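Consider the record:
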Amino acid sequence: LQEPGVGSYFVDSLRLDIERLKRTAGTHRVAYKDYHHFVSKKFPYGIYYTVEENTALVWAIIDLRHDSSWIEERLSS
């Protein structure tokens, strides 16, 4: 049997982070326009989402090692 690698751990961790949005959506700081932002618990990735009618919509998961202007450019497109 092949053991799961870092890739599986990464995806599973992000899924858990996104699952937490069910309880915490809207409580994170607004980083750009209407995009809320929170940092993954295990990895240096930001999860950017909006809240519409009691629903969190995840728009991007971005490596936070990019500079802020690069991130804002991606969110604006």
The mean pLDDT is 90. Helices lie at 6-24, 68-76.
